[in-house]
Amino acid sequence: MSQIVLEMSGICKRFGATRALDQVQLQARSHEILALMGENGAGKSTLMKVLSGVYQPDAGEIRLGGEAIRVHSPLDARKAGINLIYQELSVAPHMTVAQNVFMGSEPRGSFGRVDRKAMRERTQAVLDSLGARFGPDDLAGSLCIADQQQVEIARSLIHKSRVLIMDEPTAALSDRETERLFEVIRKLRADGIAIIYISHRMAEMSELADRVTVMRDGGYVGTLERSEADPERVIQMMVGRPLGDFYQHKSGRTPGAVRLEVRHLHSRKIRDASFAIHSGEVLGLAGLVGAGRTELARLIFGADRALGGEILIDGEPVTIREPLDAIKRGIAYVPEDRKGQGLFLQLSALANTSMNVLAQNARGGVLQHKALKKLTEDAIKQLAVKVPGPDGIVGGLSGGNQQKLLLARWLAIKPRVLILDEPTRGVDIGAKSEIYRIIHELAMSGVAVICISSELPEVIGICDRVLVMREGRISGEVSGAAVSQEAIMALAIHDAAAQTH
Amino acid sequence: MNQLFARLGLIRAAVPDAAALPAIAQENAMPSLTVRDVFNKVGMLPVLILMYIAFYFLTRYFSEDGVSNFMTMANSMNILRQTSINLVLACGMTFVILTAGIDLSVGSVLAVAAVLGMMASLPEHFPYLALPVFLIAGLLMGMLNGVMVAGFKINPFVVTLGTMTALRGAAYLFADGTTILNRDIPSFEWLGNGDFLGIPWLIWIAAAVVLISWFILRHTVLGLHLYAVGGNPQAARLTGIKVGAVLMFAYSISGLFAGVGGAMSASRLYGANGNWGSGYELDAIAAVVLGGTSLMGGVGTIWGTVIGALIIGVLNNGLTILGLSSFWQYVAKGIVIVLAVMLDKWRQQQATTN
User: A8: which strand partners?
Assistant: First the structure.
């Protein structure tokens, strides 16, 4: 009953001298989820932009339902029933769900009026079919990210989707939200829609995909049926070489003295947080999205104002009112939202890596370009960043390389405490494993590392001890052999009291 | 079966092509990349040069005796002198626009500074303190903008729209509705009328302002912080940059440079009134934007602003020599600004997508 809906063959696309796509092929079938896998920069997103009319291919053919089509614009694609849901959501926060769903194609009543009633009813119907927990009149901006994503899915369903492309849809979701999204995706598959699912995460591929197509360096590597697609093999196809033990980066560490202690720290969102972290320790901060992990990190770093509580570094009480105070004390914070809060995308690698140590590399406020250049080149070499040189503009780099440069900026201050917020989000597998290696090496050299992560295998793999947060408070701690996905999830969802056996 | 053969044929045909591709790509890549790099570096310079040459031929064609003075040393000096005040204001504006702000008040600040400085120069006041008065008045007004933008976090467009209007009124009030004239200004007469090494001081001052601005933006910690704050204020804060102080600096230096402009124009004309410098803010913004500085902040150079200011200067001068009425000059200037920025946008798109 599954038929070929979409067939792309021989797709080539080049930008100037670089070949972004070379003879790429892909087949999507109805009643099927096709996982499109590949490292960042492999060409997945470019291929999907060709399919959805954002780019025009230089060569190749797209067939929809057996008929060759040309997709000149995203509107063409939408008319043909091809919908793309981007990694970055594009809902208008100040408009209602119904207005968002029908944006650009509002149903018309008499006199060209917008037919609000039809709009609401049809939205409600689609939301029901998705099992959404919000209504058509809710403001899109008031919804959590997972729900906003459903708004986008609803938008594509209104347009009678035949092919639905989802670009890393779980990047910003917690595990529970991911589970709900998967249910929706399976439902859509049952309705006969051909789904192309782009992801880095091996677990998602195993759980969802009926077939897997792998790309590498702009080329087509191969397609595997579900039965043949074991993670090991897919990773090998993605990187072109086998990877060693992926998460295993914590052997041989012995935590030292207490480096950072937080006592009764609280704000409007964080309730009475107390914990300590030792030098040379990697402490995980787990919990659902919205549990207050980022907020706690921002409090410690001085990015938000605390209402009370104490912070001690190496046993000494410190006052942190703003990020600069924290930086002076050797606390570094690498934010989750790399592009929005971390990088200066329009500036060079040099500016981005040296931004925190400009004063140390200047005399009387005058920059010493040579020293900065050397510092940047060293960082690029040490972290194996792929960038044309210190003057390369950061906005054009892949997620993994951007993250490494951001990390380099914070390593430059020689931190005593390093807080990493979702350090591997949107980062390809190769860079991920390198980031784990860097974290391990930092801990070995005595840095206290706090790692916020929604990826449980990551937390378990790299952390010595895990604090779990729920609704603004630390609901429990697991360490040593007790660290498991189940234990963490239990603390993240249930009350801590009910949990202690 | 046929289909299969056809496919095999296709694939076979495609393989040599694909194999040949890298070689071709590399051959093309080297020269086209460098040309593009150069084009990226020079920015709007070609537009300036083309315009300069075009005006030469136009003025020659339309002159009665077939001779044009447009390219002479004297006229080129003229263009530079006429551009100098706008360039000084545009340098200040570059700082502000780099932080994703705008300073609409520079024309009015120039007027207030010019009026106050001229008043100080009157014999019954402090003639020898006139120069510092121009500068300090400008600086203080710039700081006023800075306090409201950085301290009270009010939108810069609104703040400077307010100060533009209020300070314009203040300039008229200080001058009491008249023009303050003073032919006897030994302490700063040189500024608008003297020469140094055969080049007017106006041009030297503008060059000095450009150099100072370039040095700050290119060679100081503060300069990099300006780009950072303009490009991503949130990230700047999380990096420990004092965003407020950086904004404060941008608006203060814009005010200071407007004060310098006030001194230049007051000296040149031996007088000042409430109407001085009205509309200058638009020429300054136009010069910055023509120079490729992004109104979104974080992208731009002083070098670009110099070229932008010169484009406007050449345009004004050329159109005047052609004898075009000032009404048509406005039209022409507006069209050139929009066309040039469209060109620049296209150029940047080429640079980023390729």
Answer: A26, A62
